[in-house]
Amino acid sequence: MALILKNAHVVDPSVELDGVVDVLIEGDKIARVAENIEVEGAEVRDLSGKYLVPGLVDMHVHLREPGFEHKEDIASGTRAAAKGGFTGVCAMPNTNPVADNGVVISYMIARAAEVGKCRVYPSGAMSKGLKGEIISEMGDMVARGAVAFTDDGRGIQEAGMMRRVMDYGKMFGKVFMSHCQDESLVGAGQVNEGVVSTRLGLLGWPAQGEELQIARDIMMCELTGCPLHIQHISTAAGLDMVRAAKEKGLPVTCEVTPHHLFLSEDDIDSTYNTSLKVNPPLRTQEDREALIEGVKDGSIDAIVTDHAPHAEWEKAHEFEYAPFGMTGLETSLALVLTNLVKPGVIDYSEMVELMAIAPREILGLEPVKIAEGSVADITVFDPTVAWTVNDDEFVSKSKNSGFIGFELEGRATDVFVGGVATLENGEIVE
Ligand SMILES: NC(=O)N[C@@H](CC(=O)O)C(=O)O
Ligand SMILES: [Zn+2]
Ligand SMILES: [Zn+2]
């Protein structure tokens, strides 16, 4: 049946839209975008006061299935994504078994089709078992639908191996996404190395442990010609390296998380809140400000959550024994609206670039436009609704958010994936 989404403020810079228009959905496609659409027999939804944008994509998410279903699974993780306003997520391969072969990729795609509430674009490991020793079954994974390669959770330690992975993998035309961490330097580092690590009495995870591999991978990108995407960038100097690479014309992009933008090492206090233990660690105020500047000037391409769910009992340890990671799918859009769009750091169009257009571009996915003929993956949000982050409301299986208690403004109300509603008035459609 036809569905008319009426009176929303539509923002899509890819078709230069920024104003109130109606959107007609027929089947899985957008059939028309115009003022005052009327179609006999069509269902009408009035979205006055709301914003309607191309469906948001989070290109860095840990769905944990197969293997760690006590933290999250494809059913719960994609529901958290829908609740947060996303129409698709790129799933990381650090599952058990690791997604380093076609069978695991096929499993994830089949499972998502069966129980998912958003599209799942799996990424495949670069190396078998994320060990950095043997190249993964890249061709098989791409044939089964893998959209990118990454050893996320770790970086490949040897430059020579990274070169071989990129040289070999280049033929598949996918992006190489890099978690930058030199293990010989980072060791058992827990928090950013500096005054705060000293005060807390925790081992330091130095900025250079990340920057060394950013520099190396940019060089490997130059050597191999293979597109490189720096994951969860967290330092000012690392961002400057990405800027310089872009200026050189290299195919380098990068992403940042809301926690690296809106939290810093100073938020880790004597309560040793293990939800704030993330990899890479929360950095200094200066880094945080530099990252915001990078979002503003366009040197950061995408905002991602690095949604990394862990069970309550796993996080309920001494800081050094708790696993790294925080959840993010259900707070990301609101954090960006509250802290970047409302204060005028970026506008709605730039937000759409960072959270919908660039992620699809980097992953080589079909673009979604609010235009006739495009697939109807759509996010609708109310920019005025004020709410407080409450872990009782999370649909994710895990509650390790660093933003619990935060007062935010703006929230997804409706989400459509291929014309089908997955979120309606803020509730998951089952
Ligand atoms: N970011 C994290 O702190 N943790 C991630 C791994 C990763 O993204 O590197 C996880 O899988 O838990
Ligand atoms: Zn990572
Ligand atoms: Zn990750």
Notes on the protein architecture:
Its cofactor is Zn(2+). This is Dihydroorotase. Keywords: Hydrolase, Metal-binding, Pyrimidine biosynthesis, Zinc. The protein has 430 residues and is of the alpha/beta class. The protein has two domains: 3-52 and 372-428, Roll (Urease, subunit C, domain 1), CATH 2.30.40; 55-363, Metal-dependent hydrolases (TIM Barrel, Alpha-Beta Barrel). The chain contains 13 helices and 19 strands. A hairpin with a 2-residue loop joins strand 2 (17-26) and strand 3 (29-34). Helix 4 crosses helix 7 and helix 7 (207-224) packs parallel to helix 8. It binds N-carbamoyl-L-aspartate and zinc ion (ZN) (2 copies). One zinc ion binds next to loops.
Give the overall form: globular
Give the helix proportion (percent range): 25-40%
Give the number of helices.
13
Strand content: 15-25%
CATH topology label of the largest domain: TIM Barrel
Question: What ligands can be seen in this structure?
Answer: N-carbamoyl-L-aspartate, zinc ion
Provide the fold topology.
Blueprint: E1 3-12, E2 17-26, E3 29-34, E4 43-46, E5 51-54, E6 56-61, H1 74-83, E7 86-91, H2 102-115, E8 119-124, H3 138-143, E9 148-150, H4 159-169, E10 175-178, H5 183-186, E11 191-192, H6 195-200, E12 204-205, H7 207-224, E13 228-230, H8 236-247, E14 252-256, H9 258-262, H10 285-297, E15 302-303, H11 312-315, H12 332-341, H13 348-363, E16 378-388, E17 407-417, E18 420-424, E19 427-428
Bound molecules: N-carbamoyl-L-aspartate and zinc ion (ZN) (2 copies).
N-carbamoyl-L-aspartate is lined by residues 62, 94, 152-153, 179, 278-279, 306, 308, 324-325.
